[in-house]
Amino acid sequence: MSSGTVYSRDAEVVRVMARYAHAIDDGDVEAVLADMTRDCRIDYEGGTITLRGHDEIRAYLGRMLVGASTHLLSNLLVEPDGDGATIRASAIACAAREAGRVLMRGMQYSADCIQQDGGWKIARLHHRTTWQTSGPAEHQ
User: Fold this and answer.
1) Topology of 3-136 in CATH?
2) CB contact set of 21 (below 8 Å; sequence gap of 6+)
3) What pLDDT, in 10s, does the model give residues 85-125?
4) Model-level pTM?
5) What DSSP letter does each residue of 36-69 carry, written as one string?
6) What ranges do the domains of the chain cover?
7) Would you put residue 117 in left (φ > 0), alpha (ψ -120 to 50) or beta?
């Protein structure tokens, strides 16, 4: 495998993770699903909430993505895994899901990505909150 191929894989996997964060912030459930395999598994809150497949993910996110949010991803690390790749990222998310309040969280993401349907897709996503606080929101 040439270094150009490795770079291309790494860049594409980072794009998939960035598109996920943007889709969550936009409240666009269908855009979230567009970058996931049909049988994708998502573990939220360290595995206390597990979703399998587009139907479960769509139903859950349709209820949860209410109000504005902003995800800031950093420390992105792509690790090759056979024909796939695992990406790890740290994140800070701010969400205004409750009138007059903003919830801020430090999180860690890990996603297993594979090539499918001509592009990279998330096959498994693991989300874990490492800290959380809330405060008043001045603008909404």
Assistant:
1) Nuclear Transport Factor 2; Chain: A, (3.10.450)
2) 71, 73, 91
3) 999 999 999 999 888 889 999 999 999 999 998 899 999 99
4) 0.88
5) EEEEEEEEEGGGTEEEEHHHHHHHHHHHH--SEE
6) 3-136
7) left
